[in-house]
Fold this protein.
Amino acid sequence: MRYVVALTVGEVQFICRYFYVPKPAVAATVGVSGPSTIRKQMPPDPNLIVHEVFSWVVPGIVMIVLGFPIVRLITKWLEPRPVPPRELTTIRERLERIEAAVDTIALEVERISESQRFTARLQSERQSPRLPEASGSSGQ
């Protein structure tokens, strides 16, 4: 006996084809009486195979063909851009000027600290600590 089952969903129709072959009577060996059947699948339809292959292969190829350039564009956009050599020379010149300014400031700060130490030493020499003189009424 042969059966064809068709299921339609929207505009897509799914077809399952099966045929059944009666199993030979082995009631004497098994001890069961009655007809039994073996379910076998029919050979696949070549049109369905082609449809299935193309339904997976074509979108995959489209994704690869369109996806590769898009991913490459995104990675190029995200990677850091190299600095042109002309900008490097201007940056180097600015750093040299900053370094010279820092050296000048450090020299001036050192001079100020030496000046403060010198004036503090002069003031301490001029004003010698004067202790109050001992008075005669403190216990003699």
